[in-house]
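To whoever is on call:

I kicked off a structure prediction for a single chain this morning and the downstream step that reads the tokens threw a length-mismatch warning. I double-checked the sequence; it's 273 residues and nothing unusual in it as far as I can see. Pasting both halves so you can look.
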Amino acid sequence: MKENKITFWGVRGSFPTPEHDKMQVGGHTSCVSIENGNELLIMDMGTGIKELGQKIISDPKSPSKINIILSHYHWDHIIGFPMFAPLFSDKYEINLYGKKDVWELKKIINHMLNPIFWPVSIDDFKAKLNFYTINNDEVKISDSMIIKTQIHHHPNGALSYKILSKNKIISYVTDCEYMTGSPSEKLIKFSKDSDLLIHDAHFTPEDLINHKGWGHSSWEQAVIMAKGSNSKQLALFHHSPSYNDKQIELIERKAKQMFEKTIAAKQGLVIYL
């Protein structure tokens, strides 16, 4: 029996893409959820979290406790937070987990909600909010869900996550740049034997050459990572906003030639494990 439901609510990187030739893949930025019957875990709060929030409040079976882990604090990974509908209901308790930084997580969120940038303050939210700082730690959400973390290279740093949920392993490695050109042994070991590896595939190998220091991987590096870690499935993720549907379809075909169990993540994609 497959007990984990992984849903992709946003798969783009950098900024949303509403253009008509990108709608098959989707235009929302990073947001992925994992449901295992007992728990709801959300990875990143890009614009895709708005649609997820509406789904949560409209489903009476949705859990009242929501856990959100953030890979880092760049705009495309947090910009959807003020539009997350459960924030405006006292039915919900929301736990936010993020990496240690110059500012604490709560201060980062408060700054984001400064009236210069947004008209609604944190005091207007009715949900109970809890903020937790993590850095290469293990987080126990429940007996059925444990999260392990690993820092990796990205401008100002980012976290990879390995989620152990109902005897399955889901690894989430996004906004990751391999400075030597090859996936790091540390992350290969960290993601070992993943049932699903969700990996940054922002660039083609050709485009990556001209974007060193931007903090991202190519689809080819994602494939090498999947093979090296003995992952069972690979979801290419965090697609460049410059690539249209046909370009991403081509990337998927090329990746499948190297690693058959590859899929280019699309908005609305659901994977059961």
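Update from on-call: the warning came from a stale cache, not from the record. Cleared it. Sanity check on the structure: The first helix runs from residue 49 to 58.
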